[in-house]
Please model this.
Amino acid sequence: MQEKSRKILILTTAYLPQIGGSELAIKNITDRLPEFKFDLITSRFSPDAQAHEKIGQVDVYRVGNSLSRFSFLLPKNFLPIAVFLKARRLITQQGEYDLIHAYQASQAAGGGWLLKWAYPRIPFLVTVQEGKILSEQSWLTKLFRYLIFKKADRATAISNYLAEYVASQNKNLLVSIIPNGVDAANYELRIMNYELRQKLGMKPDEKVIITVSRLVPKNGVEDLIDAFAYARQQSSNPLKLIIAGDGELKEGLKNKIRNLKLDNNVLVLGEIQSEQIPDYLSCADVFVRPSLSEGLGTAFLEAMASGVAIIGTPVGGIPDFLKNGETGLFCEPRNPQDIADKIIEIIQNQDLREKLIKNARKLVEEKYNWDTIAQEFKKIYGQ
Model:
């Protein structure tokens, strides 16, 4: 007799699998584990979004839109209740789940917290992928997260930094470090993409710095623009900067670029599709993101897989993969001159650049690939 598939209920506040972060992790892990049955409950972000659809290996159920008119009381306050009620209906229809897995200790995980009270026998797993500055969040957010960790049976974190944070909230909670990853086959080491460089108006002798980032304060893009201005003055090579991403700072960054008279040297591309990222990375010589906080930093891993030397700050989860002088170079946070110095060092030192690229690609292949990561979750799901 064929063994019955174990049923996993995934809870996440938002789910658009082509976006990034938790969404990409869920998609890549579940696609690689067809032996499990996955249901996922998430927010219904608009009335046009389907209440139920199949995405890959996952049955996705969206809830909460009918309660949105009450959201003025507390933003997203009713999503935990909507998640809980939907989960109870699914359990009534098809029986209890073998495990409840919440991504991020946020609103949807609040539904998991309620489910743990109602179904104490079902294990409750929380995966932490937070990239914000945790100490600067509101007391209500901190309390909400603390209560979730107190009720969880187990946690995973994408970096040592986040694992230490979880331990500070509940010292008795078992925490496993399972990072996010990349599909290395999609980021093959390739020769410079001169065709795309030409379309972007770049000259053959120009050295290209790239950042792929949400344009929010924590990612330090303003500091990178200042650093680029310094680097242009110091470099013996002409330089170009590509900024790929969107966010609240976009218009302000464009104004800054104009004020620094860098219009002809900086390309602000806006949001690009995830499948296009390898093409743009293959135009670049150096990837830089001078983050102020970082849960892990998947964009760094993508650059490493593509054979682009990386520069980052020693904050959050970045030190897990960036070993200074081995897999990349550290720069100081909020220090544009130091960022510029590191850019110049990589551009001018070919031996160093080749060493960083080789070591970084090897690390990604060994530790940060989705096949390995999926097997780690398989062990947890199968227990």
Q: What stands out?
A: Residues 33 and 375 are 8 Å apart (CA to CA).
